[in-house]
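> forwarded from #structure-qc
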């Protein structure tokens, strides 16, 4: 075997272990009994250690030095292998395993702490997670020549750092300060929407959500829809797991959550099969991933055209007065601007404020400027400054998200970068598909999905985030496209 072939075989084994970890993570969130947490943490730690040992074995460095690759995919794959090896060799296996154990332990305690709105319960566990994240960040910083926080960001969206994000977020904060009161005033002048009259039986919601995600394009011979405390998409490209949660008094949250996670799932399913289990066959980063969930949920499924179709589906499922299911009323309901405490419930105008806050706080924790003990107060102060609200308790403050308690530092900026990229991609898709709205009004997502398959999914991670946008839209990330979308939807 050539050096490149040996590397490809090794990375396929590493990816397969990663797939096993992904399934264990899904199981822990969806169906694992509470008593399984300690054993699951150890299982995940051992798998992380095995992947790390495979990646850092002495022969890998020799093969990377010897390997050559012909063709653009092979060359890109080899470059990504070198990047992965450089990151891995900066971290001792003991640190990798300790981090997995700490994350699993903290995440388990967080569930109870959130339910009881008691930050003190999880604080010592989160302090340990942050300590290990800072140790990891310092090691990666030295190896990659990046700041510690940028080194963590790089693991979620390569090539994007805090210096790229700061001006984008500052500009959005200024935009929001002007746009939000304008949108609220316009909304008040239009009158309140008619509420959808429940109850909405969970069994019918499950059937509806599954049916709509399949209509959007998810192949359930390679997917499952389950329930979890925090909606997510996991699994592998041929065995995708999406989750949501249901409430009998409200249908929109579960439905839009499923359509959001379906966007993630469609990206995974559309990745180049010829490069499965190779670095170049993976998604192009988490901002790219969020662009795919948000182009489905926010750009397409909350559009006037798709709501025309969706209203009929909802009325057929739940019956009653058809008036609340009219597309104009659904638009008032599901595109309603409202300052609120919970990120996952936020409208697309205020959502970036939630991300901006988390970006600033997690960066401060990693850089040593914010102690974990001071997080609730810093959260309340920052949230009040951004949205004029003071969280009344920890559950609606710093305990609401799983991310930090599961060790995900550097991830949050991807949400808003993804929203901006989604608007930019949707603009390009509309220019290429002038009849898209006619298709969406019939519930037909095939034209949009086909465009995304060709222009985003098929590239895997051969192109970086900015080059992917250049190829698909003709320019790198342009936040003005997102703000233009928001002006059109909320300020006219």
């Amino acid at each position: 075997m050539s050096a490149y072939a040996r590397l490809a075989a090794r990375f396929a084994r590493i990816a397969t272990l990663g797939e096993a970890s992904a399934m264990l993570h899904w199981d822990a969130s969806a169906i694992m009994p509470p008593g399984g947490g300690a054993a699951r943490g150890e299982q995940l730690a051992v798998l992380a250690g095995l992947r790390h040992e495979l990646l850092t074995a002495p022969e890998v460095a020799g093969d990377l030095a010897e390997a050559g690759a012909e063709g653009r995919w092979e060359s890109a794959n080899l470059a990504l292998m070198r990047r992965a090896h450089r990151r891995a060799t900066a971290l001792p296996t003991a640190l990798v395993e300790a981090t997995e154990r700490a994350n699993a332990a903290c995440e388990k305690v967080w569930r109870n702490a959130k339910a009881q709105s008691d930050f003190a319960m999880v604080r010592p566990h989160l302090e340990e997670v942050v300590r290990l994240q800072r140790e990891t960040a310092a090691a990666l910083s030295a190896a990659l020549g990046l700041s510690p926080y940028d080194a963590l960001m790089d693991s979620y969206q390569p090539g994007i750092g805090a210096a790229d994000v700061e001006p984008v977020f500052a500009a959005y904060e200024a935009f929001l300060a002007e746009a939000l009161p304008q949108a609220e005033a316009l909304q008040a002048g239009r009158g309140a929407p008619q509420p959808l009259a429940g109850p909405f039986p969970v069994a019918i919601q499950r059937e509806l959500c599954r049916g709509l995600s399949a209509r959007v394009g998810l192949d359930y011979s390679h997917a499952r829809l389950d329930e979890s405390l925090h909606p997510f998409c996991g699994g592998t490209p041929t065995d995708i797991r999406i989750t949501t949660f249901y409430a009998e008094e409200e249908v929109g949250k579960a439905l839009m959550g499923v359509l959001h996670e379906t966007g993630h799932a469609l990206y995974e399913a559309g990745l180049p099969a010829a490069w499965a289990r190779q670095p170049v066959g993976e998604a192009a980063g988490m901002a790219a991933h969020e662009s795919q969930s948000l182009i489905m949920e926010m750009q397409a499924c909350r559009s006037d055209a798709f709501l025309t179709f969706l209203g009929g589906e909802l009325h057929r499922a739940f019956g009653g007065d058809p008036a609340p299911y009219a597309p104009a009323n659904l638009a008032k309901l599901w595109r309603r601007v409202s300052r609120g405490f919970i990120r996952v419930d936020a409208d697309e105008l205020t959502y970036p404020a939630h991300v901006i806050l988390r970006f600033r706080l997690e960066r401060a924790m990693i850089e040593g400027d914010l102690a974990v003990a001071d997080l609730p107060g810093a959260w309340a102060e920052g949230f009040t400054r951004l949205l004029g609200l003071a969280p009344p308790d920890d559950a609606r403050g710093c305990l609401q998200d799983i991310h930090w308690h599961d060790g995900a530092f550097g991830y949050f900026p991807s949400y808003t970068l993804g929203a901006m990229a989604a608007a930019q991609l949707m603009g390009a898709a509309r220019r290429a598909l002038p009849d898209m709205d006619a298709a969406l009004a019939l519930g037909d997502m095939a034209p949009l999905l086909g465009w995304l398959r060709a222009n985003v999914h098929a590239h895997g991670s051969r192109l970086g985030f900015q080059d992917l946008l250049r190829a698909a839209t003709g320019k790198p990330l342009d936040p003005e496209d997102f703000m233009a979308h928001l002006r059109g939807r909320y300020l006219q």
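QC bot note: The CA atoms of residues 266 and 477 lie 22 Å apart. The chain has a mean pLDDT of 96.
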